[in-house]
Structures are given as structure tokens and as C-alpha cells.
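Re: the 77-residue chain
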Amino acid sequence: MARAALGLGVRELALASGVSADTIVRLEKGELLQPRTLAAIRAALEVAGVEFIEENGGGPGVRLTKSRHTPTSDIAS
């Protein structure tokens, strides 16, 4: 959901997080990943402007922060 909200493709998120595109696909299918892999993906999404919301009775979720930029632009600089 976070990737789609940012308008990022699988390959873009993979590049930004330093994992393979196949790993992003596996995550989105609900497969289990190593904690360090999840942390890398989460960090890339947070840099891009995603805020993760803890479960508060309605379930966990994400929202976009007010200041956003694409994570791939950070890699190039």
C-alpha cells in the first residue's frame, strides 16, 4: 500500500532499499523476510514520505507525510 501511495514501481523501491525486486514482490505476497530486509524497505519508504501507523484498534496502516520525495533521488545524490 505504501509503495502504491508513493507511485513507486517495484524496481524503484528495490533500488532505494538495496534489495532485489524479487524481494519486494515476495513482501507484497505476504512472505516472511529477514528483519534487516524489512528494516531496509521500511527505511526507504519513510525517507520517501511514508509514516507507519501502529495498530490502534483499527489495525496498522500507513499515511503520507506532508513533505515527500522519491527515495531514488536520495540515492543519486
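The chain has a mean pLDDT of 85.
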